[in-house]
Design a protein that fits this description.
Two copies of one chain form a homodimer.
Chain A (H helix, E strand, L loop, with lengths): L8 E3 L9 E2 L1 E5 L10 E5 L2 E5 L4 E7 L3 H9 L1 E6 L5 H9 L7 H4 L4 E2 L9 E2 L4 E12 L3 E14 L17 E4 L2 E11 L7 H10 L1
Antiparallel strand pairs in A: 2-12, 3-4, 3-7, 5-6, 6-11, 7-10, 8-9, 10-11, 12-13
Chain lengths: 207, 207
């Protein structure tokens, strides 16, 4: 029970305080020969924005090398990040692809899928979302790219015998207020607050 | 070390597979007398989209009651969700505000701030982001509201002696593939992959 009398609020001013947020490695490539090697940028300013069709937004500063590559090609891949990828993920967030070949430096493997013409996915990521840009909106410090997810590739070892993705086995990381976190739990499922006792029992027994 | 030869991929088709994502309780209110009581909708389709000025996007189906209230007022509050709020959070995701007074039903307290004219914040949320809509974009199943964060209110007990928000003490929940998770860790901080040994030591000692 929350004691309302004890709740005092402090004003923090305007800031981007949504937490936790996803942390992803966006892979992309330019269309010309001079940008023919793939690049990776780490982003937390991303979110699902639509269900049908599935769409995602990613926000990138204009000054970033990847901004140019995404604008050129109209494509990118959102690669989810597990614990094994976390150091590479952090590295790709602090180094620029103008000077660094991040795939080589991080010992990561680009792979190409039929659905996209330019952008490679990262083989070592457990789940990759192949995306085609639909809109680009200037917001200030960042441009937001709104893209349709045209395909998802997942590690086959994460697929159960019924063909269902076991996302809870992927060991994904989250980002909150400057720090990376693992997920612990689960502590509930969508609809648990109104679930019938037998459903609660079945879902909890599965864990 | 990842053995690349063992990585096989399964095609899952297009779907909204970004994970983990935030889970938030959006509070809002209409401008007319008939919608004068506050409403709450639970959302996972949200993300930070800009840093300067701080901006957030939330995607809401047109059919939802809150869609109407946000469109009317041009305002909403994004309330972060901790473990204590999780059951109410889930409940607000499965019930409609057309039939249910969610503040009353969940024993939550609306509070009003000078920065917004209509939308209340949720007193029991550890951190609330007060938002003013700047753009509304139709994407298909959902409309995306892009809003500027005009103020952030946090529980005073989460503020340290230097005035810094201790977000890691808030006990926030994340959402991944239909399940709610607590955060476990932290397992790194932004820049840890290139941090000098003395910085690593200092940051790790703090935990």
């Amino acid at each position: 029970m929350i004691n309302k009398n004890n709740i005092k609020k402090t004003e923090l001013g305007p800031s981007a305080m949504l937490n936790p947020v996803p942390v992803i490695m966006l892979s992309c490539r330019g269309t010309g020969k001079e940008n023919s090697r793939g690049n990776i940028i780490t982003l937390a300013w991303t979110g699902t924005v639509n269900s049908e069709p599935p769409m995602i937004s990613v926000s990138v500063r204009k000054s970033r090398f990847s901004h140019q590559l995404i604008t050129e090609s109209g494509e990118f891949v959102v690669n989810l990040v597990d614990r094994k990828l976390l150091k590479a993920c952090d590295f790709c967030g602090v180094k620029s692809g103008r000077e660094t070949d991040k795939f080589t430096e991080c010992k990561l493997t680009p792979y190409y899928c039929a659905e996209l013409k330019y952008a490679p996915a990262i083989l070592e990521s457990p789940v990759s979302l192949l995306c085609k840009v639909k809109q680009q909106i200037e917001l200030g410090s960042h441009d937001m790219f709104i893209a349709e997810i045209v395909s998802v590739k997942a590690d086959s070892e994460l697929i159960d015998s019924k063909g269902k993705l076991m996302m809870n086995k992927a060991g994904l990381a989250a980002y909150s207020h400057g720090e990376y976190y693992a997920l612990s739990g689960p502590i509930g499922f969508f609809g648990f607050s109104v679930a019938r006792p037998e459903v609660l029992k079945r879902r909890l027994r599965k864990k």
